[in-house]
Design goal:
Layout lengths: L10 E7 L16 E2 L2 E2 H11 L3 E8 L4 H7 L6 E4 L4 H11 L7 E6 L7 H14 L1 E7 L4 E4 L5 E5 L5 E10 H10 L8 H7 L4 E5 L10 H13 L1 E16 L2 E4 L2 E4 L2 E3 L7 H13 L5 H4 L13 H13 L3 E10 L9 H12 L6 E6 L5 H4 L3 E13 L3
Parallel strand pairs: 1-4, 1-6, 4-5, 7-11, 16-17
Antiparallel strand pairs: 2-3, 6-10, 7-10, 8-9, 12-15, 12-18, 13-14, 16-18
Bound molecules: magnesium ion.
């Protein structure tokens, strides 16, 4: 038996997301439900997307779900394939679709199993290379009873050698494609059954208890709890200054405040929102406001700065992140901000979705020292804390 690791192995993955089952409750199929702020399917795709041996990912969807699927996985390099009448037809469509890729190994995985890891993928790939087929799963630890209609026990089933099958299931591609073609029209429970029927050798590899399939509302709650433990907290800080110029109002925290001067800037010069936006970009390692909205671009002339903050918030959401709190300090002698504090707080809450208890908003002077003390401009600094998914 060939046990040399083969680094040239070319692998493809088929993620089966064509089911429309609503057993897990909620308005959308479970694979599109949010898990700690990230769609289930997006989380499912992470270890496949990150795995060095996997070159191609095909996601088999129900044609009606196309736009939902596209938005759920935006930014991840996948191809969508339309599913068939049942799971077996859907997998066959996926297998046919990647015929031009002709991978050595194909992995098939349920979109509703969001907690597979790269280690599990590697294990099934290696075993499929050695044996032809491999299924992630676990030995059954409980005693098994076969029961009748009224739950009376007919017999105790020996559990020795009994495993529960999960996905991913990995196979040599060409034999599996042939097996699926031969089994078209039959109703087999998983791809291993299709492979077994065709005489392929299929072995079990160790999956994990966390690699469960979301089926019921309770599964979705369990998945949410687990996803919450796989979060990492990061912080970001931002700082900005704008100089005064002749005028009659300033914008601070997206609130217009009458003043005997205005703030100079390409946009509306909302120094407070600029600091906050940069703090968010900082937390995401996503550059700064000048990179996303360059001064040189005429379309941002006089632009309301809530658009910049909106962009940073959208970016946070697309990474599956969540803002935990923000703390903003505005530094100036004038205008007096206390009368506008409630309006600014309400606007910040609107723009970020944070309750006011998670929003720090402070104003300070610099005791007449420095440029703010001389009334030449306004400075602002912001710190944010953000929760992001930490995918193993
Ligand atoms: Mg600025």
């Amino acid at each position: 038996m060939d046990t040399e690791p083969n680094t040239d192995l070319r692998c493809a993955a088929i993620i089966v997301a064509a089911g429309r089952g609503h057993r897990a409750g909620g308005p959308v199929p479970k694979q599109y439900a949010a898990l700690a702020g990230m769609p289930v399917i997006r989380r499912t795709l992470q270890p496949f997307d990150l795995h060095p041996a996997i070159e191609t990912i095909a996601v088999v969807i129900h044609p009606d779900d196309r736009s939902m699927a596209e938005s759920a996985v935006s930014g991840i390099d996948v191809t969508f394939v339309n599913g068939g009448k049942n799971r077996q037809d859907s997998v066959r469509n996926g297998l046919k679709y990647i015929e031009n890729v002709d991978p050595d190994i194909v992995l098939i995985h349920d979109a509703a199993r969001p907690f597979a890891t790269q280690t599990i993928l590697t294990r099934t790939i290696d075993a499929a290379r050695q044996h032809g087929g491999a299924v992630a799963g676990l030995p059954v630890p409980d005693t098994l009873k076969q029961v009748g209609e009224t739950a009376e026990i007919h017999q105790t089933v020996p559990r020795e050698g009994i495993w529960r099958a999960q996905t991913p299931q990995a196979f040599r591609y060409q034999p599996l494609l042939a097996a699926h073609r031969a089994a078209a029209g039959e109703a087999l429970t998983d791809d291993a059954a299709v492979a077994e029927q065709a005489g392929m050798t299929v072995v079990m590899t160790v999956g994990s208890e966390d690699n469960f399939k979301i089926t019921t509302p309770e599964d979705l709650e369990r998945a949410e709890r687990l996803a919450m433990t796989q979060q990492v907290n990061v912080v970001g800080q931002g700082y900005d200054v704008h100089a005064f110029a002749p005028g009659d109002h300033v914008w601070l925290c997206s609130v217009q405040i009458a003043h005997d001067r205005t703030l100079k800037g390409h946009s509306d010069a909302d120094v407070a929102l600029h600091a906050l936006t940069d703090a968010l970009y900082g937390a995401l390692g996503a550059g700064d406001i000048g990179q996303h909205f360059p001064d040189s671009d005429p379309q941002w002339r006089g632009a309301p700065s809530d658009r910049f903050l909106g962009h940073a918030m959208d970016l946070l959401k697309s990474r599956g992140g969540r803002l935990i709190n923000l703390d903003l300090t505005i530094i100036c002698e004038q205008p007096r901000l206390a009368p506008h504090r409630d309006a600014m707080l309400a606007r910040l809450s609107d723009l970020t979705g944070l309750p006011s208890a998670r929003i720090g908003l402070k104003a300070t002077t610099t005791e007449k020292l420095g440029f703010t003390g001389r009334g030449e401009g306004i400075a602002a600094q912001a710190i944010v804390s953000v929760s992001l998914p930490d995918i193993p």
